[in-house]
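W.,

You were right to be curious about this one. When I first looked at the sequence I had no strong expectations either way, so I just let the prediction run and decided to look at it fresh. Below is the sequence, 445 residues in total, followed by the output.
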Amino acid sequence: MAQTLSLQQSQRMALTPELRHAISILQLSTAELTQLINEAIDQNPLLEVSDTSEEATDSFDSDQQLRWEGTASDQEPWERKEHPESLAEHLLRQVGCLSLSDKEKSLLAWLIGSLDDNGFLSAPIERLAEEAKMPAEIRLSDWKAALKLLQSFEPSGIGARDYKESLLIQLNHRRLSMQSDPVICALASQIVQEHLELLAKRSFDKIRPLLGCASKELEEAVRLIAALTPHPASEFSTDSINYVTPEILVRKTGEGWCAELIEASLPKVRLNRIYAEAVTDSCHDQLWKDRLHEASELIKNIEHRRITLLRVTQALVRRQSDFFESGPLCMRPLVLRQIADELELHESTVSRVVSGKYLQCARGVFELKYFFSSQIGDSNEAVSSIAVKNEIARLIASENPSKPLSDAKITELLSERGFSAARRTVAKYRDALGIAPASQRKKIR
């Protein structure tokens, strides 16, 4: 076998660093791009914030009569909101309002520190007493008394060992405070204590003869249980709220629905003219030339992102004008390929543009990818899956609570309204909407 040399010509696409940077800028959300711009301005002296952003903000506010609240970083330190009170701080503040001995305060503090994120005391009281290593004169009865005192605190249901005990504590609080009828409270407590599994299955026909009560009393007891909080500490959740900032405004003009950029959604960045000219004219330091190149590339890629985002949104608005005019039931089927072909872009480019970007219109704030949905039915009578989901939600919202609509009945009603969908499709969309099956939606007759 002989070795030979040969030349072969071929074409392939190589991702240059500049192209990778442009792609990464394109897929960033508004918050991510804002953070990237702020970090770039801090690190590169050749970049600065343009003053036109303030003018754009004023113009946007006056023309559209919309108000955007500044983030915490825009406020002075003394104007920022304090850190929200934690569950432990809330409970310890209640301890401080009572006339208690040092022993009782110590026991309560230890129990409060042992609560989980839901406000439950997951560990047995005996184990907590052993781990605490308190003085020998503190007995198990003292721990139980402290736990009973803790369970009288707000929020109601705190300090329970499980969900059932938490519900019973809340019902007892309602009974003692006369917030609910004592008879209904007692009935609800019996349901939680003895028939919680049947209640979860909504087997009301089995619960009623076991309790020997009237349908109206059972209905009131179930309604009372539904008003309770399964997680006592839910209002003290530490999860942060992620706010979205729309970059596109869709409004109706004399020529129809149009999309335009909200200039105030992102900080304006530009080259510092004095520094840039100094680097261009007389600087021989390669570091500063690289900084100038990085700044120019960032500005160019941000502008490319703005233009591409506006083009894609304008094409989307043209195709979904019926939605902006009449609502979700008029949504048309739309896939990424259709927009990509119309704008002569790659499908992956459109996917990056619509992900994490939001528009605002008279109907609210929507992510761009919300307007893309699959097709239901043949090509002549095709409807959007979003329209089908909204019609399913509307039908269930108007159903008879004592005779909820089955998936088969919903399929039949959809067909009467011109929506052709199989029963399994209806079941899939109902699950996606977070709506329980008919057997679990049934109310007491």
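Here's what jumped out at me. The radius of gyration is 31 Å. And, maybe more interesting for your project: The beta strands are 47-49, 248-253, 256-261, 269-271, 358-361, 364-367, 375-376, 383-384.

Coffee later to discuss?

I.
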